[in-house]
Amino acid sequence: MEKNTDRSAPPEETAKKLNLTKSRTGIQQMFDEVAPTYDFLNHLLSLGIDNYWRAAATARAKKLTAKTPAPSILDVATGTGDLAAAMGKIPGATVTALDLSPQMLAIARKKYPGITFHEGYAEALPFKDASFDIVSAGFGVRNFEDLEKGMQEFHRVLKPGGSALIIEPMIPRAAILKKLYLIYFKKVLPKIAGLFSKSTFAYDYLPHSVEQFPQAEAFAAILKKAGFSAAEYRPMTFETSILYIARK
């Protein structure tokens, strides 16, 4: 994938690249490119609230595994490992993490040497059936090349009674909040990101990917189709983020 350093690229060219990025190779290259500034921009653009969202997912995982002495946890699309590290604070937990971007993983391994990181794809997880009590994913599921296959893999590697915990951005449903959110996401966020990152395209892709992703009831239905017996969701922070909980 070519670097989009031309901020005046025609809209049709940007749209074409946005569609191409959904390929596995395109996603990998994009995240390799943004890796150096990824953590800084995540915290900046979310005003630090991303830490709260990870904490909420971790608290739910802790509750779900309260009766499990040594829960095994897999964090998929781990990026630089922040959610995996949060999950690692659960008493007795063993955390394994996976991502498709070598550059993101290089940063994750330096930040969290106590976690085992694997390079790989969600649609073909390199783990045996029924290996984990929890499978988590923070802000990465919408980038899967094959969403349904990825959810089937989450289900496959979970132990009976295990749970998937998935955090994704959410577009607020209230009209006024939705309008403000989209203005920030489409107009303000890419400009701020452009001040710190060479990959302005990656932050044009972000709002596009959120808009295209099925949210709330629609994604819960996909989880059930993948084999989960139950799926619920909890909007967070004025419906700007959402936590999905699916039970095997």
From TrEMBL:
Q: What class of enzyme is it?
A: transferase
Q: In which pathway does it act?
A: Quinol/quinone metabolism; menaquinone biosynthesis; menaquinol from 1,4-dihydroxy-2-naphthoate: step 2/2
| Positions with a binding annotation for S-adenosyl-L-methionine | T80, D99
Q: Which CDD domains match?
A: AdoMet_MTases
> Mind listing the UniProt keywords for this protein, alphabetically?
Menaquinone biosynthesis, Methyltransferase, S-adenosyl-L-methionine, Transferase
Instruction: Establish whether keyword S-adenosyl-L-methionine is in the entry.
Output: yes
| Reactions listed under catalytic activity | a 2-demethylmenaquinol + S-adenosyl-L-methionine = a menaquinol + S-adenosyl-L-homocysteine + H(+)
* NCBIfam families per the UniProt record, alphabetical: MenG_MenH_UbiE, PRK00216.1-5
Which PANTHER family does UniProt cross-reference here?
2-METHOXY-6-POLYPRENYL-1,4-BENZOQUINOL METHYLASE, MITOCHONDRIAL, METHYLTRANSFERASE
Name this protein carries in UniProt: Demethylmenaquinone methyltransferase
Q: Which organism is it from?
A: Chlorobium phaeovibrioides
Q: What is the lineage of its organism?
A: Bacteria, Pseudomonadati, Chlorobiota, Chlorobiia, Chlorobiales
Gene giving rise to this polypeptide: ubiE
